[in-house]
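Explain this record to help learners:
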Amino acid sequence: MKRAWLLGGLIAIGGLSMSLAAYQAAPAPKVIEVEKIKDNLFVLKGGGGNTAVFVGSNGITVVDTKNPGWGQPILDKIKELSSKPVVRIINTHTHGDHVSGNVEFPATVDVVVQENTKTNMQRMAPVTGLNQPPTPNIFTQNNGRGMAKQTFKDRMTLGSGADQIDLYYFGRGHTNGDAWVVWPALRVMHAGDIFSGKTAPILDANNGGSGVEIGNSLTKGADTIKNVDVIITGHGTQMTMADLREYAQFNKDFLEFVRNGVAAGKSVDAMTAEYKVPAKYAGYTAAEARVKSNVEVIASELKK
């Protein structure tokens, strides 16, 4: 009897452990939050960069598609907003939290990017898991599905009238292929991660990003694009053109800080420890690791 009781207890404990392991291994639900910008323009938040959904006359344009596994949740959410088909994806740049969902969209969907971004997408680094061999980049892994089909160099216009979408490239910044997406009839723009929010930017030098040029690229965008009231940022809340101009100056001031430090012979660590967000940039953040990375990128550029 005692042996049977003990065996039963062990089985019960084993079953509980298996249930607990299964519970712990269960993936978190992919929750997407919707923000309505206009009657036919929405921002989907969660799972990566901010996704824009524009409901045009003949179909839907999606800007950025989040991390791997988030393409289908985006499509599911879109079905709640409109019965129209998705006809186009625009990716603002190459990073996985903005392009990976592409592969879950129908193969018929057009994909439009700045020309440098297509090159960057084609050579995206393999994904390596713990104790697992590297896997191909997500587009190679999906036989090219989701890869860019159309590119532009400096400017492209898609559609006309109420459906018009203007695409711009103003130079290096977050990467060397940062696309700006404008809906002129709605007076709204998606800036992607060249303006991710009021925080120190990621300067992806491996994909052509530049701390020397980002301030000027931002200013060129602010000077060129007219009649925009709302800017959808890469990861933050909606901003204005005044915010964009301020962000351009924030980056120019940071460049000058590093330029002066390099001229004085200061080390990256010394400049990192010294930097504080200037008081005039209320609400801005600059984590130490991000500051150090950006100082390294800019110092390297200045020494070339």
